[in-house]
Structure formats: structure tokens, C-alpha cells
């Protein structure tokens, strides 16, 4: 042993000497170092230096080690009573100096020497590395008078693993105050012991003999158990579980002790004198008991699972154990360690550690079950090759790994059943015979050169089907939300399942998994994994099947689960029903890629073939109801559109075109007249999601500043306070907006689009009113009487309460009247005469700039609109495709082409320029830059890196025109003002860009559905009016707050000048209910350095303000105290004096009921909680508590 393994052993030795043996004075520890010779480690001085000086070299001689240990034992027992000898023998291999007979003789001599010691001797063995002799070490642990333990660890396990093994052994040594004995226990009646092997009437368990001190006064039987050391007794401690048939009565048990003394086996029957029951009553004890039960169940289940796997027994038994594992996971998940009385922080931390270890055991069992199920599936021909291509990865979150393991164990039986059904399928020969030549030419695998007929009739492979290739990227999120797959490209090449699996296998063997399929990555700029390329050298790393014929679809249905499982999770057994939505998402993505110039017959044939596949899936996989509900919810409410409900908008496009004809008529009308509302809602949601990415970290004031500019124009917003229109309104805002959009788009190619808008400040331009302050002895006296009467304090006969209340009322009414008169002009200036249909150039500039920044792939929307509108208004039926050998009829192809051409032509006319003159836009692929360089056209002979397809994608993207928001809205919502609708849409998505804001606003009616085009009142106008009123309300709230603050300033002056405490309390109770801004103004007045005259009764006033009480009665903030910040504490101490402030602070902070932290006792961001409250050092000095240091403060924060 040398190098890193020896350094691990050295560190473990340091732990043994320093942390184990040195803390127990009753333990004498010797360390013997051996190679071909053995010697005693001398560490009289520093044991760290002694251990670090030891070098690992030479050969290995067990005989030398045994001889040295025997000499050590002789030296130790001379003149010193020894009760037990424990040897921990550690080796990294076999004896390399002695032969077998020599070793056996040395072992025999060693065993005799241990027997002659006259006391118990135990030999524990630690095998370090895989080269140790297991049989020899097993015999070695039995050489003592009592059998020892055997532990094994690998060097790769690390120092902590070796240390843990040694700690376990030394814990065993420390606990063995007596000795280990066996206990034979037998239950009478129907009660049974609970064991991992099941319930038993008789069990043998091991107990530990310990010595217990007798309690004073309890001398019964003490004479028999007494010793020279005093009143003690021997106990055997052991734990076991009993399943009671009747929980009311106690079980009847007989116990026999078994032990070995002087080589003789003894059995000692025991008399059971007493049994007792302890009920678990306290909530904390119940949680502890529940965790113990879960640990027991986990250990038992682990044993049973291991036996079931190793014995390869009944599958039904394994299924039952798997269900138990699921129930165990649910129970562990539902354990509540917070909110229970009696569970303090230390106990909670221990419980959480136990639960963490328990969850680790359960995770290992999930992995064990998944591996077993996967091994079962490997014999299924359907999974044989796909299992070999499985990407073995460890997910970053253990929850996802558990999900994956559960899927594997659940899906194996379904795949086995599918394989059995697949073997019984028979191909309809008449169906394949009727396939046209066009169909055979189209449905042709470019890799195997087999057409669909040859694939179906191949006698050697009944699991091969035809599909098409894709290039995708996937992150771990795809495990939870499969439609988050990123479609890099859709190949026009058709390939068979067997061919794509063989291509993946070849690329994996050649370059690894990541090079073949990319694995799981969050980096959009990471190199795309490519397994093969298509006919146009487009990259392919994944695959989806096609319908083609009925016989072909029968195969595809059985192969769908493993195909989708591998597509989404890179594991054929990772299938989940949610992954079926991936086909709808891919269909929507394919529709968005249609273009008037590049879309040809082959692309549309493939699109309709996959369209047929998705429609068949919806019908045959019982998805029709869920798909219809998705579309209905999207059309009917804003809550049905947010990303938490509909992750990918392309899924919605695919869902719409896969609905039955009757359902489409019910949703969109007989002739699709409701499609306009659908597309306005679709565009609004797409914009809202784009805004969520752009403004997720922006403050509300930044967003409101933009909204103010969109609503009112430059210089006329709520925060500008303009009363008259200085910017001329536009007569044709739509044309002006389109012109500005094109101008912004042309500039965005050279520099980023900047949106300049002032940050919304509702207090801008508003000045606080002047307050005339004066004191009145009459009012002061009235406040005294009012306060005493309010708090129930005794009054004198001269005190007229009724007159005092009238004076107080007049004083309170005068303040708002005087201040409100000054603010009346401000409110008049804001008289609401807002006209949402009045549009200025600055408004349109902001709309154009924002739509340029927020554009959510608008280049893809015309294709989606054209295809969906054409499909909904047509009467196409997939029976026509089936009759045409799986190919879409020519009328379908020409109809879609014409619809797309008309869509682009109409948009070009609305934009005012031909397609060749319009600004170039981005491609459908997210993240692709629309910038050409000479590097894009370099020759490249590598067919597998996908660079050629990337060049082609960029070149084809140049043929796409950038269309702007007003054009699209004018197209899908004719008869509505595009400029007005664009302003309303942009304002709305800015205000409700997050999912939570959108749901809440829709629920309360603040967010209107802009897609309700047939509403009596225009939702666009109502939206702008609502947002205008919202900004005005914010302004009015600020004005009202200023009025209230000004009124409080008048009262604060009176409080500062009050010459009696009761007058001060009267003003305080009438003015301040809580410690708000007005209260802070009062504190600033009390501590102002500019004041020349002393403040009357300042110390008493400060005490009342800080404590909230006077003479035990609450006068402020319900009697709750105030813990001022450091700056206020220092200022108040300067005003009242250090001594007086110290007394006030002690009074405040010694009241433990003042501030209660969270009930769970979890520290806050400063590291404080109920068990560790914040107490400043000034107060600690006065209370005699230890002072907090900077190091302690950091530890408190780090503990979180």
C-alpha cells in the first residue's frame, strides 16, 4: 500500500488516536505498523508527527504482525487489570512473505496466545482494497474468544468511508462494556416477532451486556448483583419488534440467554418478572416513533428486495414489494417535522438527518428495482438494442432520478406485453400489395434502402417501422415537461427505426453518447449531437414514426412508448403519457416551418403523413377529450393560456389541427368565424411570454413608466402632469405605426433596440402642503382629559369629558380641511378626460420599439395562421389519405400552397412592400442569429457535424420576411383598429408578464381577454382605460398619503411641545395607530440637531414611543415595542442620555414576548430565531451575558 490509499489510512489512524482512544482514559491504545517486519508505533510526543513519518513500503508478513501484537499484550497486562482486549487488524492484501503452512501455524499460535489472556479477546478485521484474502480474514476474525467483525472498503471510497468503518468498530468496542450474548425469544399465542424474513414466533437476537448503577433506595436484588465497585447490576439490552394480535394485552414471552464461556456453550433460561407498556402521547414522540417505524420498514424491505432479486423468484412477489416501496416513499414524504410542539431545533436537525439517510436508502431501492426491471426488459426483443443505447446519467436532482426509476419499473411489464402483441401481429398482404409506386418511392428508408412494403414483410424483424429524423436538444426539464424539447431541425429524410438505432449505436461506439445525441444540456450554444445525416446532409439525432398504413400503424402503436421514452429521456423505459404531447408539439413546429417559396410537395407530404399519425394517436390513445379541453380552455379564458397550463404554444397548434371536424365547428364556428379571436389570443400570449423573459427582473415602476408612455404619450403621462395636449394626434395611426415598425426593424440589425421611458414615480411633481403649526393650552388640556377617559384612568371632578371630546373633535377636523384645500387644485388637474383612441407619434414609437424587442418568432405565425385557417375551413378527411396509400392528395398539397401564398401576399400588401424589399427576419429556430459571414460558406466535408444544414437554414431564413404586429392583428382581426389593438396588447403584456400576475389579474377581472372581438365594448379600449385608471389610482394614493403625513406633522409638533405626559398620549392616540412614516417624522423631530430649546419630558416621551405603553396600558401599536435601527438608537440615546436610554433598552429587550420569530425556529437571514434571539452587546453587558463576536455572527448566518 502506498500513495493515496496510505494517506487515507494515515488520516484514519489520526482519527483513531486523537478522536477515539485519547478521550477514553480506560482504553489503552497501541498501534503496530508492519510490512515484512513489525514494530510498535511510538507517539509519546506528538502522535500526528509519528503517524506522518510512517512510510508504506516493503512486503507483507502477517506472522511478524502477530508476534509483535503478542509482545504488546504481554507488556500491557503486567500489573494492570484488563477486562477486554480488542484487536483491529487492517490489511490491503495477502501475506507475501510466508507460505500457507507457515501462516496457519502463526494463526494457531496467535489464537492460543489470545486464549491464554484470561479475559475476553475480540479480533476485528478491515480489508482495504480488492486484493485481500477474504477467506483468511474471515478465519482471522474468529481467532478471539468472541467472534469479531469484518469490514471492507475500497481506496476509491475515500478517507471518510474508511474512517466510518473504523468509527463503527470503535463504537462497538466502546459499547461492549460487558459482552455480546444471544437471546432466544419465543412468544406465546398469536403474537409474532417482526423480522425482515416475515413474522416468526421464535427469534434469536443479539444483546449487549451492560453495567448499570443501582438507583438509591432500590436495593431489591442488589445483593446478588453487587460488586466491589458498589451497587450495580448487569443488564442485557436488545431491540426487537412484536406484531400484537391484541394490542390491549401484553405479549407473553420466554427468554433464554446463550453465550460461550471457556469454550463451553451455555444456555440460561430467564424468568420474565415484569413487562410494561409506554404509550406515545406527545406530538414530538409520535414523530420520532413514526421515523423509527419507517426505518424498520425500509430495512426490512431492502432485505426482501435483495432476496427477491437474487433468487429471481415469483414476479408477483416482486410486484408487491414494489408497491410497498411506493407506499414507503409516500409515508416518508408526508412526515412533518415542523409545527409540532416539543421538537426543538436540535431534535429537528437530527430528524432531518435521519430522514435524509432514509431517503437515500429508498433511492437506492428505487435504483435497484429499476435495474432489475431493465434487466428483465433486456430479454425483450423490442428493447434489446434500445437498452444498449440507453444514456446512463445521474440527474442533478434526486427527485428526477426517482421519477425515472419509477417509470422504468412501471413500464417494463407494459413493454413486455407490447412485445408479445407485436409477435402476434400479421401484415395484411392485400394492403401492402395495393400500395402505389408513388407511395413506395416516398415511404423509403434512405439508410437501409427498404421501402415500407419491404419493412413490413421482412420475416426477420417484426419490430421495424418507418419514420422520419429530427435534430433536437433536450435538458433535464424534459423529464417533467416533455414539450420543452428544442427542435433544432426537422429532416425531410425518411428512416426506419432499426436504421436509426444502428446509426446511434455506431456513433456512440465511435465518439460517445454526447456526440451521438447530445445528452442533457442547458446550454443552447453547446455542439449539437449528430448520429447521422439525411439526403440533404441535414443533422439527425432522433426519430419519430409515421402512420402510412393500418398494418404499419398497428406496429407503431406498440412501439410508440419506447420510442417516445428514448426521444425524451434517452431511455426506452422512460416513457410517460405526457410525452404523447411531443408529437403534437412537433407537428405545430413543422407547420410553422412552411414557407411560400421553399415549401414543396415532399415537405407537405411528410407534414400530412405526420398529421395523420398525430390524429390517429389522439383517436386511438384516448387523447381526444384532453386535447379538446386544452383548446377550449385556451379560447375561453386567460387562465387556460399561461405557461404552467400550456408549456409550448406549438402544442396548441398541433392540438387544433388534430381535433375532429365536429369539434372544430363547435369551437371555431361553422366556417371558422371565431378563428380571429383565437389568433389574437394566441399572439397576445406569445407576446406576454416574450415580455416575461425581458421584464422578469424589472421593477414595477419601470414597467409602469412604459405603460404611462403608451397610454398618454411623451410629456403627457400621469407623472408629467400635463393638462393640455401638446403633441398633435395622428389621423392614420396604423400606417404610421407600420412605418415606424419597419424603421425600427431596419435599425435593429446594426444596433440593439433601446426603449427610453421615464421610471414611473407617482409622487413626481407633487409638493407636500404647508402646515401651520401652533400649540394651544386649551387643546392640550382637552387631550389630557380625553386620554385619561379613553384608558379608564381616574379623572377629577373639574374634568369635563364631554367638552374635552368636542375640542378634540374640532382639532381633528381642522387639519384635513386646511390641508385638503391646498391639495384640491392638484386633484382638479387630474380630472379624468382620457381618450384611449387618441394616438400620438410618441405612443407609436414606443409600441414599435417594444414590439421589436418582444417579437416572439412572428416570422413563424403567418404559416401557422394560413395552415390552421385552411384546415378548419376545409372538409379534408384522413380517409382520403388512407385510400391514397398514405399520401396526401394533390388537392391538399395545392390547397395549402395557395393558402400560404395568399397569406404572405396579403401581409406584404399590408406592409406596403414586396417580399424582396422587406426587412429580413429571424428563422423559426430560437437562438439562430440572422447574420451572414464568409465563414458560413466554407467548404466542409464532414457529413456528421450538421454545419451544412446550418448554412442551409440560415440561407433559407433570408427568404422569410419580418412581419410586424399591426400587420398580423389587422389580418386576423379585420374591422378592428390595429394600432389601438397593438397598444392595448403591448400594455397588457407588460403589466401581466408573469404567469402568477396574469392568473390573478384574470381572476379579478383586471386583465381582459383581447380576443373577445365580438364583445359589445372593445376590450382594447377597456384595457387602456383600466390601465389609465390604475395609474391615476396610484397617483391619488400618493396624494392621500401626503395629506395624511402633513396632518400628522401638525400633531407631531404638538406632541413635541406638550408639557404633560397625558397631553402627549392624547395627541399620540388620536394621530398614530401604527409606526408608519408619520411616526418616523416624529422621531426625527425629537432627535433633530437643529432644535435649540429643550423638549419637555423627552425621556418619558421616548419611553412611551419605544415601548408603546404607559403605566401598563397600550397607547401605540397595540402595546408592541419598537426595536429601532442603530441610527435611531444612537440619536435617541444622545437626546435622553446614555443612562436613560440604557434603562429603556433593557426594559424593551428583556421582554421576551415582544418579538416572536417564526414558529419553526428556522433562523432568519441574520441567523436569529426564538432559541437564538438578537440581543445587542450593550444589553448583554447590562444583563451579564456573553458578548457576540464577529465570528459568532458569521457562524449564526452560516448555520442557515
From TrEMBL:
Residues 925-944 have a biased composition (Acidic residues). Gene3D superfamilies: von Willebrand factor, type A domain (3.40.50.410). Residues 949-958 have a biased composition (Basic residues). Residues 1-173 form the VWFA domain. Transmembrane segments: none annotated. InterPro entries: VWF_A, vWFA_dom_sf. Residues 910-958 are annotated as: Disordered. PROSITE patterns: VWFA. It comes from the Eukaryota. This is Hypp5621 protein. It comes from Branchiostoma lanceolatum. The lineage of its organism: Eukaryota, Metazoa, Chordata, Cephalochordata, Leptocardii.
